[in-house]
Amino acid sequence: MSAATTRSRTPDRLCAEAVDLAREAAEEAAAPGVVGEHVEVVAEGDRVVTHFFECKEPGYRGWRWAVTVTRASRAKLVTLDETVLLPGPDALLAPEWVPWSERLRPGDLGPGDLLPTEADDLRLEPGYSGEDAPPPNSAVSEEMAEHLDVEDAEITSRTPSRGAIASVAEELGMRRARVLSRYGLHVAADRWEEAFGAKTPMAQAAPATCASCAFLMPLSGSLKQAFGVCANEFSPADGHVVSLAYGCGGHSEAAVMPKPPRPAAPVLDSMGADEFRLRPARDSGSVPPETDGASEDLGHS
Ligand code: SF4
Question: Is the pTM of this model over 0.90?
């Protein structure tokens, strides 16, 4: 260990002795009567020392007044550096601040609230804007139209015009600034599966799955292979997206479905009695196997 390190960890003697100066500074900064016992002295560096005093304020349990004093090299006069209130090792602290976007929980959004999405929200990706130029070799591109004029040729295009593509895209709901990304689809599917999926107690006790229920309204898009919307007002899933493997007692065909067979209840005969002989019968001359060993153990002849 170097001499500099040793020196910096040993409080300067004159600074360490300036407890009264430090207490006076703490009492000046604090309210009257809230500076308690002197707790410890910590060396901050060469001729820089911090004195800690207990804080007796009821709302600051475990906090300490920290008064830093110092002196110039070869000077004997100790001067005040700063006075602050710091939390001690057992201090009662407020929980760490969390940004609102991480504090938000499903269901927190109320009428009139706005929840803007980030530009780089992983759940979203750019949608089809309709502004993309068709490739140069496309039958509807301007380059191809000029080429046909020069060649005086005519082709019959089976590709719809750009206007038609845009209108179809709009009808399908694709002409939006952003659409759900693959990640967005996956997290939504996980959520729905957890709430109304095959592993829920309701689905486990259902007579059949939603896939065969008349109340299931199909979705469009890739998720239709696994989910639909329940439209049975008596079902707990009414209006919710349900997994095709989910099910409930409101299944449209529940009335005509055979009930699963129940095992018969065990029958206990509490009236009859079984004969259990403790000694061999005199006339049989045979010893029952279950009493043979016991008789020998007890020394019976
Ligand atoms: S009524 Fe039940 S089984 Fe039918 S779709 Fe709704 S949740 Fe599924």
Answer: no
